[in-house]
Design brief:
CATH topology: TIM Barrel
Oligomer: single chain
Distance between the termini: 35 Å
Strand order of the largest sheet: 1-14-13-12-11-8-7-2
CATH architecture: Alpha-Beta Barrel
Order of helices and strands: HEHHEEEEEHHEHHHEEEHEHEHEHHE
Number of domains: 1
Mean pLDDT: 94
Strand content: 15-25%
Radius of gyration: 20 Å
CATH class: Alpha Beta
Length: 343
């Protein structure tokens, strides 16, 4: 087979068709890029996507914070962290000098009775234009055309919209005790996501694919049962995935944690490719490929721990144990888990 472009390679993988080689994608922490520039591995004006000749590039132009006019308020600060209240009414503690998940301290939205104002703000169609970073989308799309790279519109889906607003604990307890509230949040956020896509595509044209972030698991378990997922979250996934398919876009779902019990529902909703397959949470690429490889493509499944440890033998063992099975049928792209650390 003749050499394919990144765009052609990823498109064929998502269609589960033969390719010339496995596709490669990776995301990089900000401090990783800074360290590589300081160490002389990367030029100051060089993009990692170009340096590594990656096959896929994504951008996230949508802002789904509830109150767009709220100016982040620093409530407390020390040498290493700062406690910030944001436009969701969430109080989060962030590292100052490195990336990472913030500590969840408090949330203004805790249940259905405190959801009303955020609901009203999120449904305000007059603010849609302010929620879209058109310049970011346009620049990334243009860059992918230049480099023949597969371009995806990156978005958070409803699970990743809800927990920044109300926190995992309030959301998950709400699924059990106030399911009508969580269903309403799913409806509001899925409607917002579709409307933002509609407005962006009308103005700037289509990407090559859709990429949804939706971290629905932790170590060895998903955050909810398959039955609860199907009843509460699945309808919103079906709605957003169907919209993407109506535009001819394949749907890639990034979901960290152990989410294998939810995969049949995600496939039924229309997922075309599962990304991450987090090894340290219990996900197994080879098993998933054997079980679902006739239905979806896969991206990821390589253990990030040998990378963090700079363990070359461990990296080789990881590749040798997984790539032959993963490449059967060709519907696999190589990536680590979430993003490459500064090692």
């Amino acid at each position: 087979m003749a050499a394919l472009t990144g765009k052609e390679r990823m498109a064929r993988i998502l269609d589960r068709k033969p390719v010339d080689r496995i596709a490669v994608y990776e995301a990089f922490w900000t401090e990783t890029k800074v360290a590589w520039i300081e160490q002389g591995h990367l030029k100051s004006d060089e993009l990692p996507n170009d340096h590594f000749n990656l096959d896929l590039q994504s951008c996230m132009p949508f802002n789904v914070v509830a109150d767009l006019d709220f100016v982040d308020e620093v409530v407390q600060e020390d040498e290493n962290t700062k406690l910030v209240r944001n436009g969701n009414g969430a109080l989060l503690r962030w590292w100052k000098s490195k990336m990472g998940t913030p500590e969840h301290v408090d949330f203004g939205v805790k249940d259905e009775s405190t959801w009303g104002r955020a609901r009203e703000l999120l449904r305000d169609s007059s603010k849609y234009g302010r929620r879209i970073n058109v310049e970011n989308y346009r620049a990334n799309r243009r860059d992918c055309v230049r480099s023949n790279r597969f371009f995806t519109l990156g978005m958070v889906n409803v699970f990743e919209c809800m927990h920044p607003l109300c926190g995992h604990e309030n959301m998950l307890v709400g699924m059990a005790l106030e399911p009508q509230w969580v269903k309403d949040m799913c409806d509001v956020y899925s409607e917002l996501t579709i409307n933002l896509m509609e407005e962006l595509f009308a103005a700037e044209g289509l990407p090559d694919g859709a990429w949804f972030y939706e971290d629905m698991g932790f170590k060895n378990k998903p955050f909810m049962s398959p039955a609860m997922y199907k009843d509460i979250v699945w309808p919103a996934h079906k709605r957003t995935f169907d919209y993407c398919h109506s535009k001819g876009l394949k749907v890639i779902v990034h979901s960290c944690g152990f989410i294998e019990p939810l995969v049949p529902g995600l496939i039924e909703a229309g997922m075309d490719c599962l990304q991450a397959l987090e090894v340290k949470a219990g996900m197994d690429l080879v098993h998933m490929k054997k079980t679902y490889g006739d239905k979806i493509a896969f991206m990821g499944g390589m253990d990030v721990r040998p990378l963090v440890a700079n363990d070359i033998k461990g990296i080789d063992a990881e590749l040798e144990s997984k790539l032959p099975a993963a490449m059967a049928g060709e519907a696999t792209a190589f990536t680590a888990i979430t993003a490459s650390p500064a090692k």
